[in-house]
Design brief:
Helix content is 35%, strand content 21%. Helix 2 runs parallel beside helix 4. Strand 3 and strand 4 form a beta hairpin. The two termini are 20 Å apart. The longest helix is centred in the C-terminal third of the chain and has 11 residues. It is built from four helices and five strands, in the order βααβαββαβ.
Length: 100
């Protein structure tokens, strides 16, 4: 089991968020385009593009989630980027998403 820990204290923008999760993209040929579509695909693969299931992310912990929610106010249509990211993280039932 791998745990992805996102620390909202470490970034203030959507670009900073994307950079903060890059270290978890270690195995396989990952098509990381630093956008929501790429994030959705990566989450569907448990952050693992290899055959080794031990590399699957099974839990995402977002520390200072409320800070990120307050600071990242970019929108895509009528939804905020944070709302969309929450939906993406919650879309994979194999990954537990915890907001702190």
């Amino acid at each position: 089991m791998r745990i992805l820990e996102i620390n909202g204290q470490e970034f203030e923008s959507i670009e900073g968020f994307y950079k903060s999760i890059e270290p978890c993209l270690k195995e396989g040929k990952c098509p990381w385009g630093q956008n929501l579509d790429s994030l959705d695909e990566i989450v569907s693969y448990n952050f693992n593009y290899s055959e080794n299931k031990e590399n699957d992310v099974n839990r995402i912990i977002w520390i200072d989630f409320q800070k990120s929610k307050n600071e990242i106010t970019d929108k895509r249509g009528i939804k905020s980027m944070i709302q969309i990211i929450e939906e993406i993280f919650n879309s994979n039932t194999a990954i537990e998403f915890i907001k702190k």
